[in-house]
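thought: user wants a sequence for this fold. calling inverse folding tool.
action: design(structure=
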């Protein structure tokens, strides 16, 4: 049996020991949720890795398209310096890859990578809490991580959608990265949804587990108080 003793400022000795029996339904649930979390993390990382990247300013980052308003009567870009009456088409640069400091960097994915990495902490906290005694504080901390992480994960989906918009919306014939951008975003969304689902499951499990443990502690405390009161009422003679 694993046992760790920590002595606080008050001199009270706390003991962390494995709960017995170790094989319990709550432990199986925590392990299953951790497995789903790990799968979601891997899928999200693969999605980010699949999205094309390039160095800032490199020609491979951009492609050119011609934008024409609905009432345009010119199929080309005007080269005259003076204003031309009527609506005309213009050429615009779009991103065919996500820019960064190098062809393999991911500065614009910093928050998504941070969010999916932090998403691993709540399941680890829950697993430790259900394995050891006197670890309810980890579940309380896990609730905070879950609430913040779900919000951030939803924001990161919008970030990845925004940086890959051009290479997804414009046809692949314009730039050749359409499939990678589409599949990369799809994998990231799938991984993020799995992470969010596991976070919600962990939150539900933590609430139920903490309430059950509190009821158990209150019951034990009431029994001890009752026994002390009974002993005080008895006549020692």
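)
observation: tool returned 237 residues.
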């Amino acid at each position: 049996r694993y046992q760790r003793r920590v002595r606080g400022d008050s001199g009270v000795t706390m003991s962390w020991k494995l709960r017995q029996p170790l094989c319990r339904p709550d432990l199986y649930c925590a392990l299953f949720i951790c497995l789903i979390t790990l799968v979601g993390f891997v899928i999200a990382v693969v999605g980010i890795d699949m999205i094309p990247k390039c160095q800032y300013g490199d020609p491979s980052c951009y492609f050119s398209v011609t934008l024409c308003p609905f009432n345009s009567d010119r199929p080309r870009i005007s080269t005259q310096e003076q204003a031309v009456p009527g609506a005309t088409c213009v050429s615009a640069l779009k991103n065919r890859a996500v820019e960064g400091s190098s062809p393999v960097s991911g500065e614009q994915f910093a928050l998504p990578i941070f969010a999916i990495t932090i998403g691993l902490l709540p399941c680890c906290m829950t697993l430790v809490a259900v394995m050891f005694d006197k670890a309810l504080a980890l579940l309380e901390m896990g609730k905070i991580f879950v609430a913040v992480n779900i919000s951030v994960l939803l924001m990161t989906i919008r970030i990845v959608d925004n940086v890959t918009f051009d290479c997804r919306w414009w046809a692949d014939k314009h730039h050749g990265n359409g499939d990678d951008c589409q599949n990369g975003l799809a994998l990231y969304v799938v991984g993020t949804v799995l992470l969010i689902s596991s976070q919600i499951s962990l939150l539900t499990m933590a609430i139920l587990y903490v309430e059950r443990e509190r009821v158990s502690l209150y019951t034990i405390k009431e029994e001890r108080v009752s026994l002390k009161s009974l002993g005080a009422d008895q006549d020692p003679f």
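thought: summarizing for user.
answer: Here is the designed sequence. Residues 178-233 form the longest helix (56 residues).
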